[in-house]
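ok trying this again, last paste got cut off
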Amino acid sequence: MPTLREALTIGDREIVAFVGAGGKTSAMFRLARELRAVGAIVVVTTTTKILVPPASPALRVVIEAHDGDLATAVAAVLRCGHLPVAGSAATPDGKLEGIAPDRVADLAGLTGVTHVLVEADGAARKPFKAPREGEPVIPASATGVVPIVGIDALGWPLAEVSHRPERVMALTGLGRGDRLDARAIARVLLGPGGNTTGTPPGARIVPLVNKVDDERWLEMARELATELQRSGADRVVIAALVGARAVIEVVGSATPPTLR
């Protein structure tokens, strides 16, 4: 199986935004580790909020309210060989406040930086979501967008598994007690007003179906991948991001690029 980097077709000098629900943070940090393992210089940040990551020898949380101070602090962390996780403030409930989306390109422009990974959506730990007005907060500099859904949303009552269920209802026409089917999930992930709203022109979109850790889930994920392809996806990644190999299957024929 390919690595997550290969499955998502990550090439040189990319800004990748993660949206949706059901594994954004796991995907972002997994990709960061894979990129660093092949010599890439990576910055992680958010344009919304993320939980402050646990302490790690390789990782440094960088918090600065002013753009110039943030860039300087991130550059210092990079010179020490660490992975910077950049934000503008820490909240009392243990979250990292994000940066303005137009500042993401500044981090990408720091000397040596090859990749910036951005969590651009929040989901309150649900496996599925639809964005409210103003979401997701995808930077205009993004070269790739990864809309994520947990397979454990498929077939369950909408209100039980959705963040912002009222928005899911508005986009799909389903009621609160109706079960989410593949068509409804694809509509929210890829349709107008859904998880990829605000994707810059030319940025590629690679949906990721997460939590596929047994054969029953795999058959359901393949069904969902087929519907995502009908909705315009060229490539769909089926994954179990907390597992040892992460990528279970890739649906689609795009050739992954090679980092130089």
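PB: full thing came through this time. The first strand starts at residue 14 and ends at 20.
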